[in-house]
Write a structure and sequence with these properties.
Radius of gyration: 63 Å
CATH topology of one domain: Cytidine Deaminase, domain 2
Strand content: 15-25%
Shape: rod-shaped
Helix content: 40-55%
Distance between the termini: 136 Å
Structural class: alpha+beta
Length: 396
């Protein structure tokens, strides 16, 4: 029978656990993997009684992966009905029968692949008594013995290889869902406190802290990336809002300038209209004065109606001669007053800020009727487009 035929259970091609922690140094050859619940339970069971030795049984399977033997320990079961004699603890037939019943109840898919022995204060010494018990009950190739010292906090695996127990320099602890061990731990509690409290092992605590720190680092990284994305979005929003405000400010300034120009044009037009009204009123008054003067004077060679004829006497003749010079002076004065005195218009004009053709027309001609002539003499197509500093010809 070759070594592969001596392996317990079926050789199932499967993948190794991914979430693992290494204890000690692991060399090529058969590797040992122990599930975290089983590992924690064994240490709690050993620490529960530090005054005497105890035995527990390892449940699991052996398999081959890439031509290498792999031992997977899924559970751990307390040894009951043990024989204690001369400071030693022995496995009895009743112990063996009890552990097989528990295996069938909780771990029906697995086999007994080894055992664990606690010897408080004696370290991990492999004695002849332990070798004899292993040969009597676990004499198949690959089965293991785990020696624990809860006081010195030491542990070591021994594995049967070619008929001898060989010490292993290290093993792996893996973490995955283990319903079978969970149910067994609920039924066979080591202490009254929660059985799931982490085992007080610095290496285990350190590993779990590292795993927690890794998860927190990943969460922090995602959180920071999210903050950067939000910050970038806020910056873009602020830039867009700033651009909108600048555009609105420029638009408001443009409207303000346009409104100022309109108000300035309105002021010019208002002043021009006031001057025109005042001029027309003055002309009407002058005309009324002249009409009154003309009515008072009787034209020569005419006779006013309903006026009785008076005999021409020398006295009357003298009176008429005396009045004629005075009437002539009044007529001449009225004629002078009736003459319109126009201001002198310059030949050219340089456009200033706020000017347009209407204001220029009012400025020099007191009317807007000259806009068309100013536009024609300067070849201006659009009366609304003149420029500051532009020289315009003015009609004379």
């Amino acid at each position: 029978m070759n070594k592969n035929e001596e392996i317990l259970g079926q050789d199932i091609k499967k993948s190794l656990p991914k979430n693992v922690r290494q204890i000690g140094e692991v060399h090529n050859g058969q590797r040992i993997y122990m599930e975290d619940y089983a590992y924690t339970y064994l240490h709690q069971f050993a620490a529960h009684n530090k005054k005497e030795e105890q035995i527990s049984f390892l449940i699991g399977e052996q398999t081959i992966l890439d031509d290498e033997r792999i031992l997977l320990i899924h559970g751990a079961v307390q040894g009951m009905s043990l024989k204690r004699e001369d400071g030693n603890v022995e496995i009895t037939d009743e112990t063996w029968s009890n552990v097989h019943d528990i295996r069938k109840q909780y771990f029906s898919n697995y086999e007994i692949i080894g055992w664990a022995y606690t010897q408080p204060g004696y370290g991990v010494l492999l004695t002849s008594f332990l070798i004899k018990q292993h040969v009597d009950y676990f004499n198949q190739e690959g089965k293991v013995l785990l020696i624990l010292d809860p006081i010195e906090k030491e542990e070591v695996f021994f594995q049967l290889n070619d008929g001898e127990l060989v010490q292993k320099s290290g093993f792996f602890i893996y973490y995955e869902k283990n319903i079978e061990m969970h149910e067994y731990m609920l039924e066979y509690k080591v202490v009254q406190d929660s059985i799931f409290e982490p085992h007080v092992d610095e290496a285990v605590v350190h590993f779990r802290l590292k795993d927690q720190e890794k998860k927190e680092a990943q969460y922090h990284k995602r959180f920071v990336n999210m903050l950067f994305a939000l910050s970038g979005a806020l910056v873009i929003m602020c830039i867009l809002i700033g651009i909108g405000l600048l555009n609105n400010l420029e638009e408001m300034n443009r409207l303000k300038k346009s409104f100022g120009a309109v108000m300035e044009d309105y002021g010019v037009l208002k002043n021009g209209l006031s001057e025109e009204v005042i001029g027309e009123t003055s002309n009407e008054r002058e005309k009324e004065t002249m009409n009154l003067n003309a009515t008072d004077k009787i034209p020569e060679g005419t006779v006013a109606e309903n006026t009785p004829e008076l005999p021409v006497t020398e006295a009357n003749s003298n009176i008429d001669e005396d009045l004629e010079p005075e009437n002539e002076e009044v007529v001449e004065a009225a004629a002078v007053e009736n003459v319109e005195i126009k201001p002198k218009v310059p030949k050219t004009y340089i456009v200033k800020t706020g000017d347009n053709l209407i204001t220029i027309s009012y400025q020099f001609y007191s009317t807007k009727e000259m806009v068309a002539q100013i536009q024609e003499i300067n070849d201006i197509d659009n009366p609304n487009k003149i420029y500051i500093g532009q020289t315009l010809l003015l009609p004379q």
